[in-house]
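Throughout our pipeline, every protein is held as a single compact record rather than as scattered files. This encoding replaces a full spatial description with a residue-level series of whole-number codes. The remainder of this section carries one protein's record, kept here as part of the documentation.
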Amino acid sequence: MKTNLQDIREKRGVRNSHNIVSIIFLSLVSIMALSFSIFLLVKNASLQRQEAAFRSELDAITSEGYYTATEAQRLIDEASNEAEQRTKASIRETFRRKLESGEGAISAVRTLFPDQIVVSSSGRYFFLPISDEIEHHGFDENDFEFTDNGFLKYIGNDDIYIKQGVDVSRFQGNIDWDKVAADGIDYAMIRAGYRGTTEGKLLQDDKFIDNIEGALASGLDVGVYFYSQALNKKEAIEEAQLLLDMIEPYDIKYPVVIDIESAESDEARTATLSSDVYEENAKVFCDTVSAAGYKPMIYGNVKSFALLMDAVDVDDYDIWIAYYGAPLYYPYHFNMWQYTSAGKVNGIDGNVDLNVCITEY
């Protein structure tokens, strides 16, 4: 009897122990569930606060004029298209104004390509990149202006040497050189001779002797030039030697020049001459002149130094550039600039070419 009672008590103790363990386990589970629930509530509250902050920030950005990436890209595209249309309109307006002012199509085209030299020949346009291999003249477009008498005046900030000159030939007829000298002209470039454009005959300018002797007698410094139509180096030397013989009696202080221009005729003997030949002719002419003790120079317009010759290949020589009007449309170094063919000078009937020289000879 005693044993059974003891067994019953032991069994009750075991059950009580199990119940306590179960209660503790359930209590722990409840605590964990409550903690997780509290964590979720806190997390949810935090997310709500973040969402509210984001919405507030977005509202502030929108109210202050900020945009989303999509909206910003749309605005950029619209601005780009608008700028493109404005640019096209501006180009058309500039082109129209230049054509209406009488500047011509070539001048209008040149404004559209400031980093290139644009020339026209035989109905075609040629675009040549401006080279940095040779020295640029460095003048600003506002460094020169025309005076009331039509002379080109330097008004820039640098202290440069500058002289006013004319270049003449038989086309100016009889010249009163005393009046020319009194009208502010410092020097004269006189055509000595030329080669015929078709048959190639060498000729002396009809007014050469009158002009050179008259200019010297009036106290002007003098240079001379020869209009070349040489087909090769032999003919170029022939032209140089004829010129040297003609000027031998005179005091020539200014350069002795080869005039390189394309004859605007399909019948011209130089019509198909390559740039290599033009350059060779110019160089051998200048070297012949230099060997005789004179200062050689090459004359030409923008086309001459862009198509007929490469300015880089003749840059060792003094340059006489022909371009009418200002600013000068030629980027490279020059020593003399023929700036108009319609100049007016006392003592010369009709128009005459005017020049400025920026090199002291």
About this structure: Confidence is low (pLDDT under 50) at residues 8-15.
